[in-house]
Amino acid sequence: MRILMATMSFDIGGAETHILELCRELCRLGHEVTVVSKGGVFVDALTESGIRHVTAPLHKKDPLSLMKSRRIIEGVIREEKPRVIHSHARIASMITHSLAKKYDIPFVTTFHYTFDPVWYLKMLTRTGERMLAVSDDLKKYLIDVYGRDADKIGVTVNGIDIDQFDGTVSENPLPAMGEGDKIVCVTRMDGPVAHHAFRLTEAMPKIVAAHPNARLILIGGGDVLEDLKTLAETTDAQLGGGHIFVLGPRSDIAKILPHADVFVGVSRAAMEAMACRKPVVLTGAQGHLGVYTPDLEEEAISTNFCCRTRPAADADTIADGVIDILNHS
């Protein structure tokens, strides 16, 4: 069966790695998959797995970009005649929903996060004949905010490839970081999503005071990356240099995580760190659970490890979690 996937981008992000693993498994089962997105660091991983990628400006909502994206996707539909269209983002859903109706193709949407419910954006949100949510609270959100039928919404797993993220230590891909306690944070550096990356950077003076050899490694790309670099450079200079490294987007996360002593973040990135048997401070833009322990499991799963059950943390709170882990052997 031919399947068309549409999403905003293929850079660092939980939705992107979710789609990558989904596409790989569909291909393993014998299906043909094409992904349309603006592109990013994980496109090579897609193509290496036999998945076609087509570039379209699905990260932009200005009229010209919307028209261009529609033209590109319609071209793919005419060429490949997919049996199913599966969308993973608001702009992508708005475009593919109308094309699915035009060509009479079954349409599925997966919700990875909450959208801004302001009225005019709410009117533009399109959902499929069947919907998937990555957590129970997102299913409830679709029912309460968008009035969708509960019977048409399934809660899907957000699985991790444990053959790739197995914790095997290979040659350090970050030799410039030197020795010391490595704190790794992987996230999209877009607007408020990068909240914890900024707070973690601000927390470094307190962390370094307790653990002088601490090293912070920030990975991810997005529209606030340059702002984060500026904050990191200023903070690192105050610490004497060599403590904070902003790497931008990378696709070799599975090779970096085994060298971490602590992971700070949420969602799939946190689960990938757990698969590598790394201690995690669960904290993000939408909430903070702190040092992950088994008693937090049910609460964490309910929000796809995004901590939406509690408020977001400040720099001191995040620092305390990191220091707590580093104090252990």
Rg estimate, integer Å: 20 Å
Task: Average the pLDDT over all residues and give the rounded result.
Answer: 92
| Largest pleated sheet | 7 strands, parallel
Name the strands of the widest sheet in spatial order.
Answer: 3-2-1-4-5-6-7
Number of strands: 13
Number of discrete helical segments: 12
Proportion of beta-strand residues? 15-25%
Q: Provide the structure class.
A: alpha/beta
**Helix content, binned percent:** 25-40%
Low-confidence stretches: none
| Cα separation of the termini | 51 Å
Order of helices and strands: EHEHEHEHEHEHEEHEHEHEHEEHH
Global shape: globular
Notes on the protein architecture:
The structure is a single chain. By secondary structure, this protein is of the alpha/beta class. It has twelve helices and 13 strands. The protein has helices spanning 14-28, 43-48, 63-80, 90-103, 119-124, 136-146, 195-210, 225-238, 253-256, 267-275, 297-302, 315-326, and strands spanning 2-6, 32-37, 52-55, 84-87, 107-111, 130-133, 153-155, 181-186, 214-219, 244-248, 262-265, 280-284, 287-291. The protein has a seven-stranded parallel beta sheet with strand order 3-2-1-4-5-6-7, sandwiched between helices. A six-stranded mixed beta sheet has the order 10-9-8-11-12-13, with helices on both faces. A hairpin with a 2-residue loop joins strand 12 and strand 13 (287-291). It is globular and about 60 Å long. The mean pLDDT is 92.
